[in-house]
């Protein structure tokens, strides 16, 4: 028999404490950096609370940002949400009762005024409060328990004066770039924006505490929206320098006319230019906004004509023989896009003008990423039947091994099937061939394809979505050069296919260094 509760009131009290916590929704509340808050805030104020214990109403000492608010005005914090304005410290013995901290100054990052001109009221941004206590502590809102709101916690080692200096500097920098954006003269505006990036380039990519957040991409988008081709190219190069060689997305037709395309073509063909710049120029040259531009605002656009299309194809074909692999890949992709211009879902002005050069380059290229890009181009430009005649695969069926590599004792790659209307219903075979110094196979191994992420049984079919992750141990392979292929069947008729090859070098395991043997040995008793 169960024992009765001796203190039933304890259970009720415990439930009263636990149930609200269980009902609260878990949510991670960020503590944003001063710079993040300076970028997002509509109003930034340094103030003094009218009540040091409850700083809900403050007198503005310095207005760093905020229209209609001046030093000396009184403002009220409203709709605090997860914020708490009070902080407590442990009292003195013997009572040790907590007592509220007294706030001497506040730094507030706020939204726009939701009150009136005479009674301004503001909502704080999430974690947009910084308090300085009368005993010299800096308080920062942090989420101590999840679920739960912000608690004002002491930030050890924080310097209030340095914090205010950073806030003034960051707010001024943000206001400066926004003022540049508002300049009416486009040339002056775009030069100023890019000069601002140059001045702050050492801070770009610094993460949430040191970077410039959305401004790191917004500034480039502002220039690319209506800059001249020369200004836009400067923005592209600067973006690449700050983003590990990446190309910015085009927000509009900044190269979408004959002068813009001529500029990109000249860079792509310039043998004195950096290979990365030439590849980026090719990528932008065949961007949809460049080839099939749509007029926007003051942009002067000119869609690609038939004569210009053929001229571009003829002038880009020699780049298939460039020394730099990334440039050959970019050339293959550019020729594919130029050969099969698309408008929505309908091909427009397709041509096989570059097909002989693409096919010759495909046959000559060694297995690797460039070979795969050439295979994509030949398959798309030549059409499904030509691809079948060239490779023996079913019409339009192209399978590639993407991102082949080895790590932590495993060989891995992604299997990519180009959409062609065919489905694979049987587990393919992984074919491994070890090559000698002239490229002839001297050892062959075959195994069922070891797929890690098969979405459903093979019998239900795989049509190329998603990519399949293949992984197997390096220890199964003898050190040397291995050619890797996948072969299988497609469709209910089980038509055979073979993937494009890849080559991987397996290194011999390193031996631990042994200490040198002594030159002579002394025998015991000597």
Structure description:
- The chain is α+β, with helices and mostly antiparallel strands.
- Among the domains are: 34-174, OB fold (Dihydrolipoamide Acetyltransferase, E2P); 398-508, Sandwich (Immunoglobulin-like), CATH 2.60.40.
- 33% of the residues lie in helices and 23% in strands.
- The chain has 15 helices and 19 strands.
- A five-stranded mixed barrel has the order 1-2-3-7-6.
- Strand 1 and strand 2 form a beta hairpin.
- The longest helix is centred in the first third of the chain and has 22 residues, at 160-181.
- The termini are far apart.
Offer a concise description of the structure.
The chain is of the alpha+beta class. Among the domains are: 34-174, OB fold (Dihydrolipoamide Acetyltransferase, E2P), CATH 2.40.50; 398-508, Immunoglobulins (Immunoglobulin-like, Sandwich).
């Amino acid at each position: 028999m169960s024992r009765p509760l001796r203190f039933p009131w304890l259970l009720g009290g415990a439930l009263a404490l636990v149930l609200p916590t269980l009902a609260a929704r878990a949510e991670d509340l960020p503590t944003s950096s001063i710079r993040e808050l300076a970028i997002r805030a509509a109003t930034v104020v340094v103030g003094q609370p009218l009540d040091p214990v409850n700083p809900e109403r403050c007198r503005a000492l310095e207005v760093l940002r905020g229209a209609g608010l001046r030093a000396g005005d009184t403002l009220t914090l409203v709709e605090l949400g997860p914020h708490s304005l009070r902080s407590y410290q442990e009292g003195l013995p013997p009572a040790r009762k907590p007592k509220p901290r007294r706030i001497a100054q506040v730094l507030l990052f706020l939204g726009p005024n939701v009150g009136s001109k005479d009674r301004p009221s503001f909502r704080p941004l999430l974690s947009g409060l910084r308090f300085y206590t009368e005993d010299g502590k800096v308080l920062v809102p942090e989420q101590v328990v999840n679920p739960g709101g912000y608690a004002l916690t002491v930030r050890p080692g924080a310097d209030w004066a340095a914090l205010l200096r950073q806030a003034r500097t960051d707010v001024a920098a943000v206001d400066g770039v926004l003022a540049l954006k508002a300049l009416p003269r486009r040339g002056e505006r775009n030069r100023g924006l890019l000069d601002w990036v140059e001045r702050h380039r050492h801070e770009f990519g610094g993460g949430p505490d040191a970077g410039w957040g959305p401004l790191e991409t917004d500034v480039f988008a502002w220039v690319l929206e209506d800059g001249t081709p020369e200004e836009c190219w400067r923005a592209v190069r600067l973006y690449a320098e700050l983003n590990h060689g990446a190309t910015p997305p085009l927000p509009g037709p900044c190269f979408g006319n004959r002068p813009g395309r001529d500029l990109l073509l000249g860079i792509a063909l310039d043998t004195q230019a950096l290979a990365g710049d030439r590849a980026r120029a090719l990528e932008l040259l065949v961007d949809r906004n460049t080839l099939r531009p749509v007029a926007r605002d003051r942009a002067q656009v000119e869609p690609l004509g038939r004569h210009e299309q053929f001229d571009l194809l003829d002038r880009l074909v020699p780049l298939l023989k460039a020394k730099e692999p990334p440039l050959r890949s970019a050339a293959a992709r550019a020729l594919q896009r130029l050969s099969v211009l698309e408008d929505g879902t309908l091909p427009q002005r397709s041509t096989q003008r570059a097909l002989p050069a693409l096919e010759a380059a495909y046959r000559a290229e060694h297995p690797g990423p460039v070979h795969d890009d050439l295979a994509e181009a030949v398959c798309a430009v030549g059409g499904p039947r030509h691809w079948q005649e060239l490779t023996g695969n079913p019409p339009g069926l192209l399978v590639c091994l993407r991102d082949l590599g080895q790590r932590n004792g495993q060989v891995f790659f992604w299997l990519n099937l180009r959409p062609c209307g065919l489905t694979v219903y049987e587990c393919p075979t992984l074919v491994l061939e070890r090559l000698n110094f002239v490229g002839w196979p001297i050892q062959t191994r075959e195994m069922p394809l070891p797929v890690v992420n098969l979405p459903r049984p093979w019998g239900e079919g795989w049509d190329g979505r998603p990519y399949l992750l293949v992984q197997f141990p390096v220890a199964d392979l003898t050190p040397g050069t291995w050619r890797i292929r996948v072969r299988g069947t497609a469709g209910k008729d089980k038509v055979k296919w073979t993937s494009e090859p890849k080559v991987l070098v397996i290194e011999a395991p390193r031996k631990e260094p042994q200490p040198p043997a002594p030159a002579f040995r002394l025998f015991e008793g000597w």
